Amino acid sequence: MMKAEKGDTTGFLKMLMRIIIRFKGKIIDLWVDNARWHKGERVRKFLLKNRNLHIHYLPPYHPELNYQESLWRTMRYEETTNVYFETLFDLEVSVFKRSQRWKPQKIISLCKLI
């Protein structure tokens, strides 16, 4: 799994560069949501220089096409509904522990990968 360092254009471009290096010489098709940092002039220029990378944008307002949305929805229901967390760290620990208890089959079914 690759994760952007930060939810901004710079972090996204760094992640794209890691993907290009990892899959050097291959055609890469990447589907992303419509976050503003996935678009813009810097991203367009980057794509012009890296022709083997093709970014496709999911249609807006269609969370059913963005599989991680079902993961987050389930996580919120199972772990954070009607719970008060003193700190952000407490929330992070709770979510992490819940994700560690999920079996791979559950994650696959939530992501509709089968």
Structure description:
Strand 1 (28-32), helix 2 and strand 2 form a beta-alpha-beta unit. The chain has a two-stranded parallel ribbon. The protein has two domains: 9-60, no CATH class; 67-111, no CATH class. The protein is mainly alpha-helical and 114 residues long. It has helices spanning 9-22, 41-49, 68-80, 88-101, 104-111, and strands spanning 28-32, 53-57. It starts with 8 loop residues before the first helix and ends with a helix. It has five helices and two strands. It is elongated. GO terms for molecular function: nucleic acid binding. It comes from Candidatus Hakubella thermalkaliphila. This is Tc1-like transposase DDE domain-containing protein. Residues 4-88 form the Tc1-like transposase DDE domain.
Measured between the Cα atoms of the first and last residue, the distance is 19 Å
User: Count of helices?
Assistant: 5
How much of the residues is beta strand, in percent? 5-15%
Count of the separate structural domains: 2
> For the largest beta sheet, what order do the strands appear in spatially?
1-2
Radius of gyration from the alpha-carbon trace, in angstroms: 17 Å
Run of helices and strands: HEHEHHH
Decide which structural class fits the backbone.
Answer: mainly alpha
- Main sheet: strands, sense, barrel: 2 strands, parallel
State the low-pLDDT regions, or none. none
Question: Count of DSSP E strands?
Answer: 2
Q: Based on CA inertia axes, which overall geometry fits?
A: elongated
GO molecular function: nucleic acid binding
Pfam families: DDE_3
Protein name: Tc1-like transposase DDE domain-containing protein
InterPro entries: RNaseH-like_sf, RNaseH_sf, Tc1-like_DDE_dom
